[in-house]
Amino acid sequence: MKQNIFSREHIISELPQVKKWDVIVIGGGATGLGVALDSATRGYKTLLLEQVDYAKGTSSRSTKLVHGGVRYLAQGDIDLVKEALHERGLLARNAPHLVKNQNFVIPNYRWWEGIYYTIGLKAYDFLAGKLSLGKSKHINKTKTVARLSTLRQKGLYGGVVYKDGQFDDSRLATNIAQTCIENGATLLNHFKVTDLIQDNQKQIIGVEAKDIETDVNYTFSSDLVINATGVFTDEILRMENAQAKKSIVPSQGVHLVFDKSFLPGDDAIMIPKTDDGRVLFAVPWHDKVLVGTTDTNLDDHSLEPQAQEQEIEFILKTFNNYINKKVTRADVRSIFAGLRPLAAPKDSSEKTKEISRSHKVIVSETGLITITGGKWTTYRRMAQDTINKAISLKKLPNKKCQTEHLEIHGAMPTENRENHMYIYGTDQKGIASLIEEDASLGEKLHPRLPFLKAEVIWAVRYEMARTVEDVLARRVRALFLDAAAARDMTAEVARLIASELNRDEVWKLNQIEEFTKLADHYSIEGNRVTN
């Protein structure tokens, strides 16, 4: 029987075969996964360790946009926009099953906005060059209303349509993790780095880590350790130096999810300037509409950040300013918060929306390389810059980057997105064969959502999911689409996982209790309690 390369047991059994790794990556979000992929495809022996699950933090909580950043264009950051637009084009080619060409409409409620935004977006189109997703254009009031039937018509002059990318963030993370393994990397989630190992010269020579599932401790050797832990960057830096200064300020972004009836059709809305100068998006996503985001500086961070009351009110009020079918708190299907790892400001005059979103590669005296900042769209370029930096420091032999035209696991051209299974790309056949073997796996997990029992088995067997949360939050997106429905699925999903992983009744009951508690935080009532 062919060995399943994604099996945790198989991956752990092969660990002793490597005495010393070329590269150890800490962190399994967009950045860490990108670095591991870049490293493995250049031929370096690569190990990635993630303390919880791939994309558990910020990387599953984005606005689901693959974009150049219209806002940064307005701020005059041309280089950042140009780089992001190039990467947007590559990502659309390399993961066409997950990245969709999305129309956005900027509604114009002042006479001059049509001219202003048309000119700005023509520049945006131009910067995309050969990798453009299509041209922007001005449309009149009638056409704007025809495209956005729930849009407030009072005072409306027209709209500007432009193209950007839209995607499923944690599905892409899962597929990148699979691509890493297919290219020879060793990846382990639920595997926490507990310390950095230094030699007598205070140079890093490896890490200590713990398998969270078994409590077994491991020591891994490498002269190159890369810290790609996002908002947890400072925790790793303090392992190296207990007195390390704060380098990251977490900025929180909150999203509310509503039924599609509040924004029917295929177009997204982009509101370029809200009351406090932020950008707000309302984006169709998996037959729902996702509205966000906020930008709130926090002093602290956690794996499960909570939306603040003023953030919820801000999104409800701003969205209602632009639509005639008003949303209420009761209409919120799910609410989630993510943290952006922004570079700590040099002084109090810097505001979060002005702190640069571009990435930084930092080299410590110990040889630790830290990659911070950036965004999902530029994950590949961030990884390339990080590995190139290691090469320039003579920590790795010089080998050329291979990821620019590398297809991500599951890649296939996808026009029809009516059936939710499109996100699996080429893996759809594998899931279909599971249902052929056992017809009961073709049953839906909940009447309000399209997800099937077969997807749970697939997630555990081939996508490294280990818990109910891994499945319902990040392999299928139930928790982010409809928290109450996700809660209703818990017992059945726990039963399916327990059966696949040979877990006992105690494990199953613990999983049900943990996920039920978590799902409460994604509902508006549960969120209110915590504020």
Automatic annotation (TrEMBL):
GO molecular function: glycerol-3-phosphate dehydrogenase (quinone) activity
Superkingdom as given in the UniProt entry: Bacteria
Domain (FAD dependent oxidoreductase) ranges: 22-379
BP GO annotations: glycerol metabolic process; glycerol-3-phosphate catabolic process
Coiled-coil spans in chain: none
InterPro entries: DAO_C_sf, FAD-dep_OxRdtase, FAD/NAD-bd_sf, G3P_DH_FAD-dep
Family: Belongs to the FAD-dependent glycerol-3-phosphate dehydrogenase family.
Protein name: Glycerol-3-phosphate dehydrogenase
Organism: Leeuwenhoekiella marinoflava
Species lineage: Bacteria, Pseudomonadati, Bacteroidota, Flavobacteriia, Flavobacteriales
